[in-house]
Amino acid sequence: MAGEINGIEVKTHMGPEEMAQRTREVKEFNVETFEKENNRVPRQALGKEDFLQLLMKQLAYQDPLSPMEDKEFIAQMAQFSSLEQMTTMTQGFAKLSGDFTRIADYLTGTEARSALGKSVELVNGEHTVYGQVQAVTRGNNPQIMVNGSYYDWNQVIQVVEEQGLNQLVSEL
User: Fold this and answer.
1) Facing residues of 133 across strands?
2) What is the pLDDT of residues 140-167, one digit of tens each?
3) List of E strands, the chain
4) Are 56 and 77 in contact (CB under 8 A)?
5) pLDDT tens digits for 28-45?
6) How far apart are CA 60 and CA 31, in angstroms?
7) How far apart are CA 74 and CA 59, in angstroms?
8) Is 48:83 a contact under the CB 8 Å cutoff?
9) CB atoms within 10 A of CB 152
10) Burial, 108: exposed, middle or buried (Cβ in 10 Å; 0-12, 13-18, 19+)?
11) Adjacent-strand bridge partners of 5
12) Under the phi-then-psi rule, with left for phi > 0, alpha for psi from -120 to 50, and beta for the rest, what region is 131?
């Protein structure tokens, strides 16, 4: 469909091929202009800074004869407040998760060190190993030395006093 404005023919609709061509041209232009020159990478999500920038632009360029209504502004500010609270909660949960991991690692190391000198039963592949803990390594994944070999602490099934191990072995 075409029209004429001031003696110039103007197309009012594009066909699918022309639309696809214009879309490619716009994408290429954006890549060349913004991404390469400014080292910018497009994002798929907006953050709180983006939200505030949009809100400020909206307020700056609103129609003075038809300004934004109070209800709209309050709704947008409530959305911003919710976004801010969710961001803070997410950061708090991430920190809390890290704290729990450190506590669990500490407790695992403490538990392994408390087994030093005691007898253990542990599983190594298809074999069960019994013996006294002779040494313990430190770290996130402590190991114990039993019968001259190191094993991961998570292989231990139970820790018993020396006399308890003798009773356990005799029961088998």
Assistant:
1) 146
2) 788 999 999 999 988 999 888 765 555 5
3) 2-5, 8-11, 119-124, 127-136, 143-146, 149-152, 156-160
4) no
5) 887 777 666 566 666 666
6) 29
7) 13
8) yes
9) 14
10) middle
11) 8
12) left
Query: Amino acid letter at 150?
Result: Y
Cβ burial, residue 56 (10 Å; 0-12/13-18/19+): exposed
How far apart (Å, rounded) are the C-alpha atoms in residues 14 and 19? 6
Query: Exposed e or buried b for every residue in 121-148, given b needs 16+ CB within 10 A?
Result: bbeeeeeebbbbbeebeeeeebbbbbee
Supply angle C-alpha 118, 115, 97, rounded to 5. 165
What are phi and psi for residue 57, nearest 5 degrees? -65, -40
Spell out the residues 6+ positions from residue 79 whose beta carbon is closer than 8 angstroms to its own. Answer: 51
**Distance from C-alpha of 9 to C-alpha of 4, rounded to nearest angstrom:** 4
